[in-house]
Amino acid sequence: MKKGLLLVISGPSGAGKGTICKSLLEQNSNINLSVSATTREPRPGEVEGVNYYFLEKEKFKSMIVEGEFLEHAEVYGNYYGTPKAKVMEKLNSGEDVLLEIDIQGALKVKEIYPNGVFIFILPPSMEELKSRLEGRGTETKEAMLRRMESAYHEIEYVFKYDYAVLNDKVDLAVKTIESIIEAEKARVHRQENILEEF
Amino acid sequence: MKKGLLLVISGPSGAGKGTICKSLLEQNSNINLSVSATTREPRPGEVEGVNYYFLEKEKFKSMIVEGEFLEHAEVYGNYYGTPKAKVMEKLNSGEDVLLEIDIQGALKVKEIYPNGVFIFILPPSMEELKSRLEGRGTETKEAMLRRMESAYHEIEYVFKYDYAVLNDKVDLAVKTIESIIEAEKARVHRQENILEEF
Protein backbone atom coordinates (compact mmCIF):
# COMPACT_ATOMS: atom_id res chain seq x y z
CA MET A 1 0.00 0.00 0.00
CA LYS A 2 1.45 3.34 -1.10
CA LYS A 3 1.47 5.95 1.67
CA GLY A 4 -0.52 9.14 1.29
CA LEU A 5 1.18 12.53 1.13
CA LEU A 6 1.37 14.86 4.11
CA LEU A 7 0.93 18.30 2.56
CA VAL A 8 2.04 21.10 4.84
CA ILE A 9 0.82 24.48 3.59
CA SER A 10 2.27 27.35 5.49
CA GLY A 11 3.43 30.94 5.16
CA PRO A 12 3.25 34.34 6.78
CA SER A 13 0.02 35.80 8.10
CA GLY A 14 -1.80 37.56 5.26
CA ALA A 15 -0.22 35.46 2.47
CA GLY A 16 -3.62 33.88 1.84
CA LYS A 17 -2.98 30.26 2.82
CA GLY A 18 -6.52 29.92 4.21
CA THR A 19 -8.16 30.90 0.91
CA ILE A 20 -5.83 28.62 -1.05
CA CYS A 21 -6.46 25.61 1.21
CA LYS A 22 -10.22 26.13 1.07
CA SER A 23 -10.18 26.18 -2.72
CA LEU A 24 -7.76 23.21 -2.90
CA LEU A 25 -10.04 21.13 -0.66
CA GLU A 26 -13.19 22.09 -2.61
CA GLN A 27 -11.61 20.93 -5.86
CA ASN A 28 -9.92 17.81 -4.50
CA SER A 29 -12.35 15.79 -2.39
CA ASN A 30 -9.69 13.10 -1.90
CA ILE A 31 -7.53 15.42 0.25
CA ASN A 32 -8.29 15.26 3.99
CA LEU A 33 -7.91 18.39 6.08
CA SER A 34 -6.22 17.61 9.38
CA VAL A 35 -8.39 18.72 12.31
CA SER A 36 -6.49 20.41 15.14
CA ALA A 37 -7.04 19.89 18.84
CA THR A 38 -7.53 22.84 21.19
CA THR A 39 -8.28 23.60 24.81
CA ARG A 40 -10.20 26.79 24.05
CA GLU A 41 -13.98 26.89 24.33
CA PRO A 42 -16.00 26.07 21.21
CA ARG A 43 -17.48 29.15 19.54
CA PRO A 44 -21.13 29.14 18.46
CA GLY A 45 -21.55 26.83 15.46
CA GLU A 46 -18.21 25.04 15.86
CA VAL A 47 -18.54 21.26 15.68
CA GLU A 48 -16.38 18.73 17.57
CA GLY A 49 -14.18 16.78 15.11
CA VAL A 50 -14.95 19.17 12.25
CA ASN A 51 -13.58 22.56 13.32
CA TYR A 52 -11.50 21.23 16.21
CA TYR A 53 -11.18 18.42 18.69
CA PHE A 54 -12.06 20.22 21.92
CA LEU A 55 -10.00 18.85 24.81
CA GLU A 56 -9.66 19.51 28.53
CA LYS A 57 -6.36 21.12 29.46
CA GLU A 58 -5.29 18.10 31.55
CA LYS A 59 -5.93 15.71 28.64
CA PHE A 60 -4.02 17.99 26.26
CA LYS A 61 -1.02 18.21 28.60
CA SER A 62 -0.84 14.44 29.04
CA MET A 63 -0.94 14.04 25.24
CA ILE A 64 2.01 16.45 24.97
CA VAL A 65 3.94 14.35 27.49
CA GLU A 66 3.11 11.16 25.59
CA GLY A 67 4.37 12.70 22.31
CA GLU A 68 0.95 12.46 20.69
CA PHE A 69 1.18 15.74 18.76
CA LEU A 70 2.99 16.42 15.49
CA GLU A 71 3.26 19.99 16.78
CA HIS A 72 1.57 22.09 19.42
CA ALA A 73 1.70 25.64 20.74
CA GLU A 74 0.26 27.74 23.52
CA VAL A 75 -1.45 30.98 22.44
CA TYR A 76 -2.91 33.35 25.04
CA GLY A 77 -3.26 30.56 27.59
CA ASN A 78 -4.92 28.05 25.25
CA TYR A 79 -3.25 25.04 23.65
CA TYR A 80 -3.49 24.14 19.98
CA GLY A 81 -1.98 21.07 18.32
CA THR A 82 -2.07 18.47 15.56
CA PRO A 83 -2.87 14.97 16.88
CA LYS A 84 -0.36 12.58 15.34
CA ALA A 85 -2.47 9.38 15.40
CA LYS A 86 -5.29 10.71 13.19
CA VAL A 87 -2.82 11.97 10.57
CA MET A 88 -0.74 8.78 10.51
CA GLU A 89 -3.84 6.59 10.20
CA LYS A 90 -4.91 8.41 7.01
CA LEU A 91 -1.39 8.47 5.53
CA ASN A 92 -0.90 4.75 6.20
CA SER A 93 -4.17 3.95 4.45
CA GLY A 94 -2.92 5.83 1.36
CA GLU A 95 -4.91 9.02 1.85
CA ASP A 96 -3.42 12.51 1.47
CA VAL A 97 -3.63 14.84 4.47
CA LEU A 98 -3.45 18.64 4.39
CA LEU A 99 -2.06 20.64 7.31
CA GLU A 100 -2.66 24.40 7.15
CA ILE A 101 -0.30 25.69 9.74
CA ASP A 102 1.93 28.59 10.78
CA ILE A 103 5.67 28.57 10.16
CA GLN A 104 6.74 27.55 13.67
CA GLY A 105 4.36 24.60 13.54
CA ALA A 106 5.45 23.57 10.06
CA LEU A 107 9.10 23.45 11.11
CA LYS A 108 8.22 21.22 14.08
CA VAL A 109 6.28 18.89 11.78
CA LYS A 110 9.29 18.74 9.47
CA GLU A 111 11.49 17.47 12.31
CA ILE A 112 9.09 14.62 13.09
CA TYR A 113 7.95 13.87 9.52
CA PRO A 114 10.54 15.09 7.01
CA ASN A 115 8.86 13.02 4.30
CA GLY A 116 6.04 15.57 4.14
CA VAL A 117 5.68 18.04 1.28
CA PHE A 118 6.41 21.50 2.67
CA ILE A 119 4.86 24.35 0.68
CA PHE A 120 5.38 28.01 1.52
CA ILE A 121 2.74 30.48 0.31
CA LEU A 122 4.24 33.83 -0.68
CA PRO A 123 2.21 37.03 -0.76
CA PRO A 124 2.56 38.69 -4.18
CA SER A 125 4.31 41.74 -2.66
CA MET A 126 4.68 43.61 0.62
CA GLU A 127 2.23 46.25 -0.70
CA GLU A 128 -0.40 43.59 -1.38
CA LEU A 129 0.25 42.00 2.01
CA LYS A 130 -0.30 45.38 3.68
CA SER A 131 -3.58 45.97 1.88
CA ARG A 132 -4.77 42.46 2.80
CA LEU A 133 -3.96 42.93 6.46
CA GLU A 134 -5.66 46.37 6.35
CA GLY A 135 -8.67 44.77 4.66
CA ARG A 136 -9.26 42.66 7.75
CA GLY A 137 -9.83 45.94 9.60
CA THR A 138 -9.36 44.33 12.97
CA GLU A 139 -6.07 45.89 13.95
CA THR A 140 -4.64 49.11 15.26
CA LYS A 141 -1.99 50.80 13.17
CA GLU A 142 0.75 49.69 15.56
CA ALA A 143 -0.43 46.07 15.56
CA MET A 144 -0.52 46.17 11.75
CA LEU A 145 3.06 47.46 11.55
CA ARG A 146 4.19 44.69 13.90
CA ARG A 147 2.41 42.12 11.73
CA MET A 148 4.04 43.51 8.56
CA GLU A 149 7.48 43.41 10.13
CA SER A 150 6.89 39.90 11.42
CA ALA A 151 5.62 38.73 7.98
CA TYR A 152 8.72 40.20 6.37
CA HIS A 153 11.01 38.26 8.70
CA GLU A 154 8.91 35.11 8.36
CA ILE A 155 9.48 35.09 4.60
CA GLU A 156 13.13 34.23 5.26
CA TYR A 157 11.95 30.80 6.47
CA VAL A 158 10.99 29.94 2.89
CA PHE A 159 14.42 28.30 2.49
CA LYS A 160 13.44 25.58 4.97
CA TYR A 161 10.62 24.51 2.62
CA ASP A 162 10.50 22.34 -0.50
CA TYR A 163 8.30 24.61 -2.59
CA ALA A 164 7.42 28.30 -2.74
CA VAL A 165 4.12 29.21 -4.39
CA LEU A 166 3.29 32.83 -5.13
CA ASN A 167 -0.29 33.71 -4.22
CA ASP A 168 -0.86 36.23 -6.97
CA LYS A 169 -4.02 34.58 -8.33
CA VAL A 170 -5.63 31.95 -6.07
CA ASP A 171 -6.62 29.71 -9.01
CA LEU A 172 -3.06 29.61 -10.35
CA ALA A 173 -1.62 28.93 -6.89
CA VAL A 174 -4.07 26.03 -6.42
CA LYS A 175 -3.16 24.65 -9.85
CA THR A 176 0.54 24.76 -8.96
CA ILE A 177 -0.15 22.90 -5.71
CA GLU A 178 -2.11 20.25 -7.63
CA SER A 179 0.91 19.83 -9.93
CA ILE A 180 3.19 19.53 -6.91
CA ILE A 181 0.96 16.74 -5.55
CA GLU A 182 1.00 14.86 -8.86
CA ALA A 183 4.76 15.29 -9.22
CA GLU A 184 5.49 14.16 -5.65
CA LYS A 185 3.50 10.97 -6.25
CA ALA A 186 5.77 10.27 -9.23
CA ARG A 187 8.95 10.67 -7.14
CA VAL A 188 11.05 7.53 -7.18
CA HIS A 189 11.65 7.59 -3.41
CA ARG A 190 7.88 7.42 -2.86
CA GLN A 191 7.51 4.37 -5.15
CA GLU A 192 9.66 1.80 -3.41
CA ASN A 193 7.66 -1.08 -4.87
CA ILE A 194 8.23 -0.14 -8.52
CA LEU A 195 10.34 -3.19 -9.30
CA GLU A 196 7.99 -5.66 -7.63
CA GLU A 197 5.42 -4.88 -10.30
CA PHE A 198 7.63 -6.31 -13.03
CA MET B 1 17.25 35.56 -14.84
CA LYS B 2 15.83 32.22 -13.72
CA LYS B 3 17.56 29.26 -15.35
CA GLY B 4 15.58 26.91 -17.57
CA LEU B 5 15.08 23.26 -16.63
CA LEU B 6 17.13 20.47 -18.14
CA LEU B 7 14.60 17.65 -18.53
CA VAL B 8 16.22 14.28 -19.03
CA ILE B 9 13.71 11.69 -20.22
CA SER B 10 15.08 8.20 -20.27
CA GLY B 11 14.18 4.57 -19.79
CA PRO B 12 14.57 1.11 -21.27
CA SER B 13 14.15 0.44 -24.97
CA GLY B 14 10.47 -0.14 -25.71
CA ALA B 15 9.17 1.89 -22.75
CA GLY B 16 7.85 4.46 -25.19
CA LYS B 17 10.00 7.49 -24.36
CA GLY B 18 10.05 8.57 -28.02
CA THR B 19 6.25 8.75 -28.27
CA ILE B 20 6.02 10.59 -24.96
CA CYS B 21 8.67 13.16 -25.91
CA LYS B 22 7.04 13.78 -29.30
CA SER B 23 3.68 14.45 -27.67
CA LEU B 24 5.23 16.56 -24.89
CA LEU B 25 7.01 18.76 -27.46
CA GLU B 26 3.87 19.13 -29.62
CA GLN B 27 1.87 20.37 -26.64
CA ASN B 28 4.58 22.57 -25.12
CA SER B 29 6.17 24.75 -27.77
CA ASN B 30 8.33 26.42 -25.10
CA ILE B 31 10.35 23.22 -24.54
CA ASN B 32 13.44 22.89 -26.74
CA LEU B 33 14.55 19.45 -27.88
CA SER B 34 18.30 19.08 -27.61
CA VAL B 35 19.79 18.10 -30.96
CA SER B 36 22.50 15.42 -30.79
CA ALA B 37 25.73 15.38 -32.73
CA THR B 38 26.80 12.30 -34.70
CA THR B 39 29.53 11.12 -37.03
CA ARG B 40 27.22 8.83 -39.00
CA GLU B 41 26.10 9.76 -42.51
CA PRO B 42 22.84 11.70 -42.84
CA ARG B 43 19.93 9.54 -44.02
CA PRO B 44 17.67 10.83 -46.81
CA GLY B 45 15.53 13.67 -45.49
CA GLU B 46 17.59 14.30 -42.35
CA VAL B 47 18.40 17.96 -41.84
CA GLU B 48 21.57 19.37 -40.25
CA GLY B 49 20.75 21.03 -36.92
CA VAL B 50 17.23 19.55 -36.85
CA ASN B 51 17.72 15.78 -36.71
CA TYR B 52 21.41 15.90 -35.84
CA TYR B 53 24.53 17.98 -36.08
CA PHE B 54 26.57 15.91 -38.54
CA LEU B 55 30.27 16.08 -37.67
CA GLU B 56 33.49 14.66 -39.05
CA LYS B 57 35.05 12.02 -36.79
CA GLU B 58 38.15 14.15 -36.16
CA LYS B 59 36.06 17.12 -35.07
CA PHE B 60 33.96 14.89 -32.79
CA LYS B 61 37.04 13.38 -31.16
CA SER B 62 38.58 16.77 -30.47
CA MET B 63 35.30 17.92 -28.90
CA ILE B 64 35.42 14.85 -26.62
CA VAL B 65 38.94 15.78 -25.57
CA GLU B 66 37.88 19.38 -24.89
CA GLY B 67 34.98 18.18 -22.69
CA GLU B 68 32.40 19.70 -25.01
CA PHE B 69 29.82 16.93 -24.60
CA LEU B 70 27.35 16.39 -21.77
CA GLU B 71 27.56 12.72 -22.73
CA HIS B 72 28.71 10.73 -25.72
CA ALA B 73 28.89 7.11 -26.83
CA GLU B 74 30.23 5.02 -29.68
CA VAL B 75 27.70 2.71 -31.35
CA TYR B 76 28.80 0.38 -34.18
CA GLY B 77 31.77 2.62 -35.03
CA ASN B 78 29.82 5.90 -35.04
CA TYR B 79 29.87 8.55 -32.33
CA TYR B 80 26.79 10.15 -30.85
CA GLY B 81 26.74 12.91 -28.23
CA THR B 82 25.01 15.89 -26.66
CA PRO B 83 26.91 19.16 -27.27
CA LYS B 84 27.13 20.99 -23.94
CA ALA B 85 27.36 24.57 -25.24
CA LYS B 86 24.02 24.56 -27.07
CA VAL B 87 22.20 23.16 -24.03
CA MET B 88 23.82 25.58 -21.55
CA GLU B 89 23.05 28.58 -23.75
CA LYS B 90 19.32 27.79 -23.72
CA LEU B 91 19.25 26.99 -19.99
CA ASN B 92 21.07 30.22 -19.13
CA SER B 93 18.59 32.25 -21.17
CA GLY B 94 15.75 30.71 -19.10
CA GLU B 95 14.55 28.18 -21.67
CA ASP B 96 13.75 24.55 -20.85
CA VAL B 97 15.65 21.86 -22.73
CA LEU B 98 14.56 18.25 -23.25
CA LEU B 99 17.09 15.43 -23.61
CA GLU B 100 15.65 12.11 -24.78
CA ILE B 101 18.41 9.71 -24.02
CA ASP B 102 19.30 6.15 -23.01
CA ILE B 103 20.09 5.21 -19.42
CA GLN B 104 23.89 5.20 -19.75
CA GLY B 105 23.77 8.70 -21.27
CA ALA B 106 21.36 9.99 -18.63
CA LEU B 107 23.64 8.86 -15.81
CA LYS B 108 26.60 10.64 -17.42
CA VAL B 109 24.54 13.83 -17.75
CA LYS B 110 23.59 13.54 -14.07
CA GLU B 111 27.27 13.57 -13.07
CA ILE B 112 27.93 16.78 -14.98
CA TYR B 113 24.57 18.49 -14.37
CA PRO B 114 22.91 17.06 -11.24
CA ASN B 115 20.50 20.01 -11.21
CA GLY B 116 18.61 18.45 -14.13
CA VAL B 117 15.23 16.77 -13.72
CA PHE B 118 15.73 13.05 -14.29
CA ILE B 119 12.60 11.20 -15.39
CA PHE B 120 12.49 7.45 -15.97
CA ILE B 121 9.76 6.11 -18.26
CA LEU B 122 8.45 2.72 -17.15
CA PRO B 123 6.73 0.32 -19.53
CA PRO B 124 3.33 -0.69 -18.11
CA SER B 125 4.45 -4.34 -17.74
CA MET B 126 6.94 -6.83 -19.13
CA GLU B 127 4.13 -8.36 -21.25
CA GLU B 128 3.34 -4.99 -22.80
CA LEU B 129 7.05 -4.31 -23.35
CA LYS B 130 7.34 -7.64 -25.16
CA SER B 131 4.42 -6.92 -27.44
CA ARG B 132 5.82 -3.45 -28.23
CA LEU B 133 9.23 -4.83 -29.15
CA GLU B 134 7.52 -7.53 -31.23
CA GLY B 135 5.38 -4.87 -32.90
CA ARG B 136 8.52 -3.30 -34.33
CA GLY B 137 8.96 -6.56 -36.22
CA THR B 138 12.60 -5.83 -36.93
CA GLU B 139 14.21 -8.41 -34.72
CA THR B 140 14.96 -12.10 -34.59
CA LYS B 141 13.57 -14.05 -31.66
CA GLU B 142 17.00 -14.24 -30.03
CA ALA B 143 17.64 -10.51 -30.41
CA MET B 144 14.20 -9.87 -28.92
CA LEU B 145 14.93 -12.05 -25.90
CA ARG B 146 18.22 -10.23 -25.34
CA ARG B 147 16.41 -6.90 -25.54
CA MET B 148 13.78 -8.06 -23.02
CA GLU B 149 16.44 -9.24 -20.62
CA SER B 150 18.39 -6.02 -21.02
CA ALA B 151 15.23 -3.92 -20.49
CA TYR B 152 14.47 -5.87 -17.32
CA HIS B 153 17.92 -5.14 -15.90
CA GLU B 154 17.79 -1.54 -17.03
CA ILE B 155 14.65 -0.95 -14.96
CA GLU B 156 16.77 -1.32 -11.82
CA TYR B 157 18.42 1.99 -12.71
CA VAL B 158 15.14 3.76 -11.92
CA PHE B 159 16.48 4.38 -8.40
CA LYS B 160 19.12 6.76 -9.79
CA TYR B 161 16.33 9.02 -11.11
CA ASP B 162 14.14 11.68 -9.50
CA TYR B 163 10.85 10.58 -11.01
CA ALA B 164 9.33 7.38 -12.43
CA VAL B 165 6.43 7.79 -14.84
CA LEU B 166 4.44 4.77 -15.95
CA ASN B 167 3.72 4.81 -19.68
CA ASP B 168 0.34 3.13 -19.50
CA LYS B 169 -1.52 5.85 -21.43
CA VAL B 170 0.66 8.36 -23.33
CA ASP B 171 -1.66 11.29 -22.53
CA LEU B 172 -1.54 10.61 -18.80
CA ALA B 173 2.24 10.18 -18.84
CA VAL B 174 2.61 13.52 -20.66
CA LYS B 175 0.28 15.20 -18.15
CA THR B 176 2.37 13.86 -15.27
CA ILE B 177 5.55 15.20 -16.89
CA GLU B 178 3.90 18.61 -17.33
CA SER B 179 3.05 18.56 -13.61
CA ILE B 180 6.65 17.63 -12.78
CA ILE B 181 7.86 20.63 -14.81
CA GLU B 182 5.46 23.00 -13.05
CA ALA B 183 6.36 21.59 -9.62
CA GLU B 184 10.12 21.77 -10.28
CA LYS B 185 9.79 25.45 -11.19
CA ALA B 186 8.16 26.02 -7.79
CA ARG B 187 11.03 24.34 -5.92
CA VAL B 188 12.66 26.69 -3.44
CA HIS B 189 16.21 25.76 -4.50
CA ARG B 190 15.39 26.91 -8.05
CA GLN B 191 14.10 30.29 -6.82
CA GLU B 192 17.13 31.77 -5.14
CA ASN B 193 15.96 35.32 -5.77
CA ILE B 194 12.66 34.96 -3.92
CA LEU B 195 13.61 37.35 -1.15
CA GLU B 196 14.96 40.03 -3.46
CA GLU B 197 11.44 40.57 -4.76
CA PHE B 198 10.21 41.78 -1.37
TrEMBL record, chains A, B:
SMART domains registered for this protein in UniProt: GuKc
Reaction catalysis annotation: GMP + ATP = GDP + ADP
Binding site for ATP: 11-18
Main localisation: cytoplasm
Short name of any one Pfam family annotated for the protein: Guanylate_kin
Task of the protein: Essential for recycling GMP and indirectly, cGMP.
Top-level division of the source organism's lineage: Bacteria
EC number: 2.7.4.8
Keyword terms of this UniProt record: ATP-binding, Cytoplasm, Kinase, Nucleotide-binding, Transferase
Molecular function as annotated in GO: ATP binding; GMP kinase activity
Enzyme kind, highest EC tier: transferase
Gene name of the encoded protein: gmk
Cross-referenced PROSITE patterns: GUANYLATE_KINASE_1 (PS00856), GUANYLATE_KINASE_2 (PS50052)
Name assigned to this protein: Guanylate kinase
Localisation per UniProt entry: Cytoplasm
